[in-house]
Amino acid sequence: MRVLVVGSGGREHALVKKAAASRLVEEVHAAPGNAGIARQAICHPVSDSDIRGIVELARQIGAGLVVVGPEAPLCAGLADAIIEAGLKVFGPRRDAAMLEGSKSFAKEVMNAAGVPTAAFSRFVEYEAAMAHLASISMPVVVKANGLAAGKGVMVAEAMAEAEEAIRKCFVDRTFGDAGLEVIIEECLVGHECSVLALCDGKEIVPLEPAQDYKRIYDGDHGPNTGGMGCYSPVPRVPPALVGEIVETVHRPTVDELRRRGIDFRGVLYAGLMLTPAGPRVLEFNTRFGDPETQAILPRLETDLVELMMACAEGALDGRQLSWRQERCVTVIMASAGYPLTSSQGDVIDGLDADGGLEGVDVFHAGTAEEDGKLVTAGGRVLAVSALDNTFSAARRKAYEAVDKINFDGMQYRTDIAAEPALAER
Ligand code: AMP
Ligand code: GLY
């Protein structure tokens, strides 16, 4: 069968690679893809926001399955349009994607389902939000309700920062309509982790947990990014805890949606804080994480396309996943100026003719081809993933590969997976 992967980042490159390795798949297509994806898939110049264009393309190529990477098209109804065209899709319909598209909807569902999350209040007016701030103690977290490309969450240590965040939403309108509804929530303390699970509307099969690094600089300093690195599995989150998280978070959420007539099919990604009182949900995403996917999928032995078809068809029941024992460490290489801006057109040196490197996976995110040369074309440029028996060895392998790659202004963290590597000693 032919699979069409929608999106253009490192996550989609990892999905394309797994799709290409599936025993069910003869041809992988991508829209729009990137310079790395083009080495493994047939890329089509159709934007992921062009719903009619994607459906038309899926029809033309006779796609047996369309896999949607990013959240924006899901929230805009891409999965609905694909289903209406009589095709199969991996990714939730619009109503289920609202778990990511509206934080207040997610909170309301969590409260109804008894899912543990930070206490919160919701505001649609500047004055009321400001008045609320005056009545609570710092720190707090201010969140734009809608999709804000990962930038709508502001952790405020002091009152002035919290006020500034509220102003950004309602007065400066930094997040457009996404910021006209605001959540102010309790600031949780603990270790973060990501637990993604495959869902078919009813059944839930967790993937191995992953640890994302959100800040741009070593030691978790500097501004938040889309994610600067990742590792999987997470020693702090052993299988029994994953099981507990599925039963207290994913299952009640999917059940509550089903009670409302909403069928969640795809990946339900819980961003969690492990607090002394137990795991608490920070956010839901309704898709694979980036860079979590680049650290999780290299370890998955089970045929991913078979699993995604089972999700699309409501046939996940009884599936067991099989994983490689090695650890995976993923280092993101970002362009100059990221995350505030990004630099385009810087020549990337050091990769082989396939855009990769021996012994590691090099997933392309913001890359393009210009005059036969590979150049930067976005904030996050490459994700380098390495597998080995220990975190120390996987880390060494990943950074040896990173050392071979070069482009002007490149930025990467040097402390990815340093913590689990140290704990191994
Ligand atoms: P989100 O996009 O909701 O994952 O938020 C981005 C980041 O903000 C998270 O990864 C956390 O580091 C932080 N964050 C979000 N909500 C909270 C919270 N209630 N308490 C503390 N940190 C939070
Ligand atoms: N790594 C965080 C995300 O995919 O949203």
- Main-sheet strand order equals 3-2-1-4-5
Tell me the helix content: 25-40%
**Unreliable residue runs:** none
What is the CATH C level class of the largest domain, in words? Alpha Beta
The small-molecule ligands in this entry are: adenosine monophosphate, glycine
Protein topology:
Blueprint: E1 2-7, H1 10-20, E2 27-32, E3 42-43, H2 51-61, E4 63-68, H3 71-75, H4 78-84, E5 89-90, H5 94-101, H6 103-113, E6 120-123, H7 126-134, E7 140-144, E8 153-156, H8 159-170, E9 182-186, E10 191-200, E11 204-206, E12 211-212, E13 215-217, E14 221-224, E15 229-232, H9 239-259, E16 265-275, E17 278-285, H10 292-296, H11 304-313, E18 327-334, E19 344-347, E20 361-364, E21 367-370, E22 373-377, E23 380-388, H12 391-404, H13 418-423
Parallel strand pairs: 1-2, 1-4, 2-3, 4-5
Antiparallel strand pairs: 6-9, 7-8, 7-9, 10-11, 10-16, 12-15, 13-14, 15-18, 16-17, 18-23, 19-22, 20-23, 21-22
Helix pairs in contact: 5-6, 6-9, 7-8
Bound molecules: adenosine monophosphate (AMP) and glycine (GLY).
Describe it for me?
Helix content is 31%, strand content 28%. With 425 residues, the protein is α+β, with helices and mostly antiparallel strands. The protein has four domains: 2-95, Rossmann fold (3-Layer(aba) Sandwich), CATH 3.40.50.20; 119-186, Dna Ligase, domain 1 (2-Layer Sandwich); 191-313, ATP-grasp fold, B domain (D-amino Acid Aminotransferase, Chain A, domain 1), CATH 3.30.470.20; 327-423, Glycinamide Ribonucleotide Synthetase, Chain A, domain 4. The strands form six sheets. It has a five-stranded parallel sheet with strand order 3-2-1-4-5, sandwiched between helices. Helix 5 packs across helix 6 and helix 7 packs antiparallel against helix 8. The longest helix has 21 residues, at 239-259. The protein is globular, with a radius of gyration of 21 Å. Glycine (GLY) binds at residues 150, 212, 227, 285, 289-290, 292.
